[in-house]
Amino acid sequence: MSTDAIIKDVQSLTISSGIVEVYELQVSQDPDQFIYFTNAYYDDTTSTKIKLRDREGGNTIREYHVIPASLTGLEFKAGGPLPQPKLKIANVLRTADTTSLAGALGTAKYEDILGFKFYRRRTLKKYLYNVDTSSDPATEFASDMYYLDRIDSENPQEVTFTLVSPFDLSGVTLPRRTIIGNMCPWEYQGAGDHLNNWEKKGGCTWNQEGKIHVNGAEHRAFVNRDDEYIVPSTLSFTDDPGSGTRTLDKYYQTDATNLTKVSYGGSTAVIGTTDDANRWQAATAATTNPADNSTDWKRVRIFSNYSMANEIFVYIESKYNSYVLDGQIETISISNGGSGYTSVPDVTISAPGIGTTNGVQATGTALVEAQAVTGIVIDEPGHGYVDDETVTVSFSGGGGSSAAATNPTVVTRIWQARKEGQTGTDLNKRAQPGFNAYWTRGDVCGKRITSCKMRFGYNPIQTLSYDAQSANFTAGKQLTGGTSGATATIVSDTDAGSTGTLTLSNITGTFQNNETITDDNSSPGSATVNGTAGGAVTSKGKVALRTLDTTIGLPHGGFPTARRMGGN
Question: What is the C-alpha to C-alpha distance for residues 186 and 59, in angstroms, rounded to an integer?
């Protein structure tokens, strides 16, 4: 970078050329990649783009795509904190290449580039490479460098980032860790129980399948990047009445209007009304109508088990995109290597329960050593398997016999659709869930203290069936087991006379079959437990964290960077 000539220009009585401002935003660290953009063409009449020699000089010439953007809040003051500028970039441009920010990110999301670098470069128009091809390094003002600290807002039209100076604490690289204000630096699930000890990194112990044990019972809690629970589509949602008092912890639904649907191939259409697209949970006995940023309501998203029989919906308003739970075969253990295998036997892994029309059958290749099967390499992990599904493995051929494998391990993960919708079973118009342009992980940490709370503070809601009812139960009252001493809050009661089903939250202990249960109403409800608690749903995150059993715990040392993190 050369500044002498440009300083002389600006110190003269008149500046003979206009000032040009261009931007460079890092979108990947490995490899190190940037997107180059500005607000205007070099020549509007011919759509000629601005060119400028690379910041490091040499033969690399950068071309700057025209992407609407603004940079504000750059003013420096003699005292007080360093400025934290706001970078606003158009979000409506969605190309498949680096001519848009979405295209440059590929399968990544905006949150994935937090902590990355942003450069502002300024020069006079006469020093652009379009005019001056001889200056090396480029003649320009000293460039400004910032780090992307957080996302202030995101909507279909634009995304706004807050930037911080490299002299500020946020973004400074310290030994083995990067500090970003109000953000967790640990790798999500980096110390989960699915990893060997030597593979673990950081302190996030959250299970890779969202499994958590509360009072000895296993539950699953899926939470997206916005700290919203992702719950089964099979749950019961009630149309919100629009007025009156709602039931605490109950699920409601409302319609969405004017969503822009993106079909396979990229065509779009505005949908006037999308029925029941908004899903909510009442965080209080609310009298207000469901709304984001309301203390009375918590938005939830829904998922379904993956099947090619189901349409996958994608919208410009991407938070409404479909979520699916997809199971794959990850490991198979050999229980008996057999003998006499002079060649590699064929391996057959049973298809998922939904079949090979709506799912994908896993495949594998046997490993043979000393005429015995020693392992199986998974070639195709399959799609559409479900948790706890019985999957069988058989061997044929190879000249040997008696090889056997234990039931394969099915791992299920939440995925969210992106880019384009999908429908039908034509594999040419289907992209299976995975790390590709059409899918992204749905259960992703938002890197906030609330992100930890929603997971490790998970407070399950369950159903409990009863019979021999002698007095009606009352919602909101505490339920107690006469034998077990277990307690819970009654969310609702589906009463069918002498039998029924209670929906419970804040459960402690385990209710026992055939014990008497009563509530603490002035006229206590009473019945007998019929079976055991089941039908785990989900709940809103509570302020107080639960004491979990020994099979799972909080991240090592409690919340990461807790002294710097603010709740939402």
Answer: 39
Q: What is the DSSP letter of 229?
A: B
CB 308 within 8 A of CB 148: no
**Backbone phi and psi for residue 20, each to the nearest 5 degrees, phi listed first:** -115, 135
**Residue 13: Cβ within 10 Å count:** 4
Q: Which SS3 state, helix, strand or coil, does residue 123 take? A: strand
DSSP 370: T
State the DSSP string of 202-232.
SS----TT-EEEETTEEEE--B-TTS-BEEE
**Residue 137 preceded by cis peptide, ω within 30:** yes
Q: Which single residue is written with the structure tokens 């990649």?
A: 33
Whole-number Å distance between alpha carbons of 334 and 393: 10
Measured between alpha carbons, how far is 278 from 280 in angstroms, rounded to an integer? Answer: 7
pLDDT tens digits along 320-347: 999 999 999 999 999 999 999 999 999 9
**Terminal alpha carbon distance of the chain:** 43
Q: Which residue has the tokens 């004017």?
A: 258
153 neighbors 160 (Cβ within 8 angstroms): yes
Q: How far apart are CA 158 and CA 404, in angstroms?
A: 56
Angstrom distance (rounded) from CA 386 to CA 220: 13
**Token pair of 491, please?**
């969310």
Higher pLDDT, 348 or 543: 348
558 and 460 Cβ atoms separated by less than 8 Å: no
Task: Give phi and psi for 111, each to the nearest 5.
Answer: -65, -25
CA 508, CA 485: separation in Å to the nearest integer?
A: 9
Q: What angle do CA 297, 303, 304 make, to 5 degrees?
A: 145
Please state the pTM of the whole predicted model.
Answer: 0.64
